[in-house]
Batch of 2 targets.
Target 1
Amino acid sequence: MTAVVSHPVLHVVGLTKTFTIRSRGRSAALTAVDDVSLSLAEGETVALVGESGSGKSTVARCLTRLVEPTAGSVQLDGRTLRGLTWKQMSRAYKDMQMVFQDPNSSLNPRMRIADVLDEPLRLHTDLTAAQRRERVVQLIQEVGLGEEHLRRYPRELSGGQRQRVGIARALAVDPKVIILDEPTSSLDVSVRGQILALLARIQAERKVAYLFITHDLQVVRKIADRVLVMYLGSVVEQGPTADVFDHPVHPYTRALLSAAPVAEFGRPRTRFHLQGEIPSPVDLPPGCRLAGRCPMTRPECTTAVPPLLAVSADHSAACPPALYSPEAEPHSGPLPVPSVPERP
Ligand SMILES: Nc1ncnc2c1ncn2[C@@H]1O[C@H](COP(=O)(O)OP(=O)(O)OP(=O)(O)O)[C@@H](O)[C@H]1O
Ligand SMILES: [Mg+2]
């Protein structure tokens, strides 16, 4: 169930990515992303959260075609992206840009900043060299740097300045959507706030939509209109940020929020623990993928993957209604769990 977004600028249905890997000497299917649907409205920020390995970056990489999705449809600004020629595709994809976690590795160390910013303009626009130079100066100023930075190489900038360049590069072709994969996690705490403020200002001015991937729930609370919680490749809960944070219903969301420091939410939360670690995404067991860790698992959880069901108008969770009630409490004693394959 996807939240209904009027006139979405990005509409993704059933996005799936399976990698073929070698595991114990044989080839195996690794399900990194499984049937993920999401929508983004103009100027909206949607956060994608979930523990390491849940498939967040793979969603981002599939959307920007850094990896080819196995299945799913993507509509960008009303245009379906499947079936386009390479040239049409590259033109369509300019509307969706990405900012990476580590600006160190995402900027070519041999290119001056002026050339880093000129490259997308050269590839995607018909601007003359003089127009592009003017645009490059506007871009560097828009992200709070000066013309003097254009002559430098990435190594001559600080981490925060490099991330500003990463943002300027994403803005160069005036995209409708920017996917930000942990854009502040490699930065000092003092610089993080500045980058978040810059992103907020850019969004207010340009009405660009953000798909914001982060582990920092405090940031999600501050900046995201809606949040999607991923576990082992699937979305297990989604809704307006305040609804999901104040009334989480899926056991995974409850555990994720209960593990966050109290200071992030301003009041103590009920402790809600999961057992063990995220299992291997290879040869996933049938049924709910949290069943092996969830303190509320019932036998029926192990037979079929629960669909996303409405909790309220825009809020949904993949857990049977009898269990997802916020009042439902974990049972004690041994869990009736299926055996979960080990990591490859
Ligand atoms: N190119 C690849 N080949 C094989 N497996 C991959 C590949 N890329 C990702 N995976 C696997 O897909 C799963 C999801 O990985 P992904 O990087 O999307 O997770 P993530 O949620 O972004 O994690 P993190 O929070 O640590 O960044 C993991 O099990 C990962 O090992
Ligand atoms: Mg990642």
Target 2
Amino acid sequence: MADHYAQMSAPELYLGPFQGITDVHFRNAFMAYFGGIDKLFTPFFTGIDTDNSKSLRTPEIDPGKNDVARTIPQILSRDAAELIRFAEQCQQKGYEEINWNLGCPFKRVANKKRGSGLLPFPVLIEEILEAYFAAAPARLSIKCRLGYADPNEIHQLIPVFNRFPLSELIVHARTGKQLYKGQVCRPCFEAIIPEVRHRLVYNGDIFTSRGFLSDREQFVGINHFMLGRGLLSDPFLAADLKGINNREMQDRKRHLHAFLIDLFDARRETLKTGPVTMGKVKELWTYLIWSFDKPQAVWRRIREIKTEQEYKQALTSIFAEFDWTGQGYAKYLLSKTEASTNDVN
Ligand SMILES: Cc1cc2nc3c(=O)[nH]c(=O)nc-3n(C[C@H](O)[C@H](O)[C@H](O)COP(=O)(O)O)c2cc1C
């Protein structure tokens, strides 16, 4: 095993997109405070109906506010013309690659053959890719699941993906129907490694250093990993997985506290303090709490806050009274499987 690790190069880590959480403010504050991430993805855009789409005239994709070289704009669509329009506008802003979301699991999306709902239709996917690559205004990568209803659907999709010059394929090792529940199917991911011609990126349930080592060992030849809830729950995770030992980060509570204040202030500037900012604050905290020693008690401090002042007071008291244990999201999944009562998520 020692030999195997010696042969592995440093992993490339991606920050997964989270609609409603990993907005431009989060991405920028995260990179300023934590790092360890090589590539970032915007949450998905939709409704790109014109050549000067309103949703692309926002800070979310503004090249002056984003790290264009490392940020990949994502689109949710089943329409080749819309993908092309999106790619063209992104390219005009300086982005060289876009990502196509074939993973969104929600019924109202999937029922319209969008996101993971398109996965059972390889012919349709092939037609869309055909049309996209005939124009190919920017590089294209895909983020998908193993299937919508069945994890074997991917075996019909890979020959299609292999026919086109995708820049990479990111696979969240669940089905759409699973939503975010249950186990990821690691053996299913392992089985597709030899089939995929493109760079293959693993995504799903990377929550701890130990789990990551085991994934690296199992997925021979895979060097690219997308982090999701594990990183929201412990923003130090990527740096830890890479062994980055930054002295500033050693006082973790102080560092995280400063990040959260900066993130709040950055959002307040564009969103004003109000339900939107508070909603985002609380949603991030549904992940963060699990990396404290007493998740439920921390949540009770956050749950009722309504104003900026209440939030900043809650932060002060949380960081004074609770311990940061880190890498805690596995605790959440454990609490679910044990069916213990909990009042978040
Ligand atoms: C609230 C929420 C919002 C998400 N938004 C997006 C999105 O906009 N685009 C996308 O590709 N994936 C989205 N995802 C999926 C994550 O990026 C990631 O693939 C998923 O959480 C699995 O990785 P993990 O097990 O490491 O969390 C979202 C997930 C959640 C829970």
